[in-house]
Amino acid sequence: MRAGLLRDRIYFKELREIRSPTGFVKKEYYNIFSCKAYRKKLSTVLGNGIDAMEEFIGNTIVFQIRYYPIIKNNQRVEYQGNEYDISLLDRQIDNTYIITLTKINK
């Protein structure tokens, strides 16, 4: 992967519990890490399952980033103000991740 491809910034968030002085426990997602990423284009699969050359992308996006051991499956990703859930975290042989994200509807 060439460094010039990494143009988009994504933020990884992790669920943490915060206890107030009164004892109330509040769970929120907090930024723990940010990195640059390459947004891969989704390609259509022609033939099986797609009628009249339609393209269905939905709420899924795919990124390629460098490998960082802090990244886990149970985290969320923020990209352009939207939050995404990690559907697939696939480590490649060239020390990168292919991350498939699904948009979280709020």
Write the layout of secondary structure elements.
Elements: E1 8-19, E2 25-40, E3 60-66, E4 76-79, E5 82-91, E6 96-103
Antiparallel strand pairs: 1-2, 1-4, 2-3, 3-6, 4-5, 5-6
Describe the protein's architecture and organization.
The chain has 106 residues and is mainly β. Helix content is 0%, strand content 54%. It has strands at 8-19, 25-40, 60-66, 76-79, 82-91, 96-103. Strands 1-2-3-6-5-4 form a 6-stranded antiparallel barrel.
Strand order of the largest sheet: 1-2-3-6-5-4
The beta-strand count equals 6
Beta-strand proportion: over 45%
Helix content: under 10%
Main sheet attributes: strand count, strand direction, barrel closure: 6 strands, antiparallel, barrel
Secondary-structure-based class equals mainly beta
Mean pLDDT: 85
CA-atom Rg in angstroms? 17 Å
Tell me the overall shape: elongated
The H-and-E topology, N to C, reads as: EEEEEE
Low-confidence stretches: none
Observed structural traits:
106 residues, mainly beta, six-stranded antiparallel barrel
Short note summarizing the structure:
This protein has strands at residues 8-19, 25-40, 60-66, 76-79, 82-91, 96-103. The protein is mainly beta and 106 residues long.
